[in-house]
Structure formats: C-alpha cells, structure tokens
Specification:
single chain, mainly alpha, Alpha-Beta Plaits, three-stranded mixed sheet, 8 helices, 3 strands, 70% helix
C-alpha cells in the first residue's frame, strides 16, 4: 500500500470512529458531570481534527516535484506532525488548568454504569485505531500516520485512567481532578515525542549506522580497489532520500576513471537501497575533513 492511500484510509476511518466516540463520551461526561470524562471526549474529537490534518498532508505531500520544489513536497508530513503536536499541547494545557481548578474547589464526581460502559468502549476502539495506524506507519514509513497513532494511543491510555477513576471514585473525592492532571502530563509527553521526531527529520538526521555498514559492504563487493567511503550525510524528503558521501581513490586514476567509479557506486546505492546518492571523489592521501 502506498503512502497516499494509507494516509487517506487511516484518516477517514479515524474521523468516523472518533466522531462516534466523541458523542458517546461527551454525553456520558455531561450526565455524570465529570471533567476527566468530558475532557477525554474533547481529546477524542481532537483526534478527528488531527486525522483531517493527516489527510490534507498526504494530499499535499503526494504532489510531484516542480521548479520551486525540486525535492518534492514530502516534508508536508513532518509539518502535519508538528500541527498535531501543537494541538496536543493545547489540549494538555486545558486539561491541567481545569483539573487544578476542580481540585482547588474540592469538587467530586458521581459516576454510574453509563460512564463505565462508554469508557470501556472507548479504550477498545482507540487502541484498535492506534494499532492500525502503527501498522500502516511501519508499512509506509509515514511519520504523520505514526503521529496519529500516538494520538489514538494516548486517548486509549487516558480512557483507562478515567475507567480506574470511575471504579474508585467513591473512596477518593479528588480522583477526577487528579486523573485530569495525569492525562495532561501524558499528552505533554506525547507532544514532545511527536514534535521531536518531526523536527529531527526536518533538520536532517545522521544516517543509521546499520545502513552505512551495508553501503560500505556493497562498495567493497563492487571493487577490489582500496575505496574508502566516509563523510556520510542523508537528506530525508519523505518520498525519497538523498545521500552524499566521499570516497578516496588512488592518486594515479584519471578523472574519467574516478567519475566512472563514483557513478557506479551511485547506481549500486540506488538499486540496492532505493536512495539517490552523490559521491565526491578525493585522492587517497587527503586527510579526512
């Protein structure tokens, strides 16, 4: 399955399921007067908003390269992930603020069977959505789908906390406000993780050491000559990756011979790893920079 289809499919399913869950949890929150359950409902609705962002990002990132964007539009997926992280951060702040106010006012919440049933349904449905998003994310390496999966996961975890709170609410009057605060901290952590991954990809990452070793092995198999690859840099454009590296060759090789070796290595890397590469040739006695 390609990235575009996966993104559309995950996004549409997420919007439908989250909209139904929002109605159920919001209704249960109003009936019981629970801040944690009502906040959890709005968290679920935010999942629908983030899924819509995923759909838009997939549409934008699937555009072909043009004169203004020769490397394509794939990084819209990272930008979408940052939007999701920002959305999570706002929700987390609201959860924390409301929970503190409720605790200061010594407010308790009365739960019932409705809250228990709705919360259990939410936990099961949200974890199923998370697993589905993670599966598609692994298959397509789509960071915005992975981010959406984390959004589903945090919602499932927060619903578990709400369920625990419902079961022990009679013994602890403060449980609803404390759970709201815990949920907010979980969301702040998810915000950090999502934003960190997206920013790292936007800024540029160090190539994976395993990938470097595989490329070095392929170069060694290509020629018995003493080719010394080094200075690896990878540029992630989501839809494709580009790699730059340096190789050291014997000083007595002609420009034409050096060019052929570099071109052959570029072709091998593209064929074996699906990565476009640019190889810079250096004389063997040149010191590494």
């Amino acid at each position: 399955m390609d990235k575009s289809r996966a993104g559309y499919l995950e996004g549409i399913i997420s919007v439908v399921v989250n909209s139904v869950l929002f109605i159920l949890k919001f209704w249960a929150g109003i009936v019981t007067g629970s801040i944690a359950l009502t906040a959890d409902a709005w968290h679920t609705l935010s999942d629908s908003l983030s899924s819509i962002i995923v759909i838009i990002a997939v549409k934008l990132s699937s555009k072909k390269p043009d004169d203004d964007h020769p490397f394509g539009h794939g990084r819209w997926e990272q930008i979408a992930a940052l939007f999701i992280a920002f959305l999570l951060g706002i929700i987390a702040f609201d959860f924390l603020k409301d929970s503190i106010i409720q605790f200061k006012n010594n407010e308790s919440t009365e739960f019932g069977t409705i809250a228990i049933v709705v919360t259990i349904i939410s936990v099961v449905a949200k974890e199923a959505l998370a697993q589905y998003a993670f599966f598609l994310g692994r298959k397509t390496d789509n960071v915005s789908i992975k981010a959406d999966g984390w959004h589903h996961r945090t919602d499932a975890l927060s619903s578990i906390l709400v369920l625990i709170g419902i079961l022990v609410a009679n013994q602890f009057w403060w449980i609803d406000s404390v759970l709201g605060a815990i949920i907010s901290l979980m969301l702040f952590y998810a915000t950090y993780q999502i934003a960190k991954e997206a920013i790292n990809k936007l800024l540029g990452e160090k190539p994976d050491s395993e990938l470097i070793e595989k490329i070095k092995h392929s170069i060694k198999q290509y020629s018995s000559e003493d080719i010394q690859p080094h200075h690896f840099h990878i540029h992630n454009y989501v839809r494709h990756q580009e790699l730059t590296l340096h190789i050291k060759l014997k000083n007595n090789l002609s420009i034409e011979e050096g060019h052929k070796i570099a071109s052959d290595i570029e072709r091998i890397i593209h064929q074996q790893f699906g990565i476009i590469s640019t190889v810079h040739v250096e004389p063997s006695d040149m010191k590494k920079r």
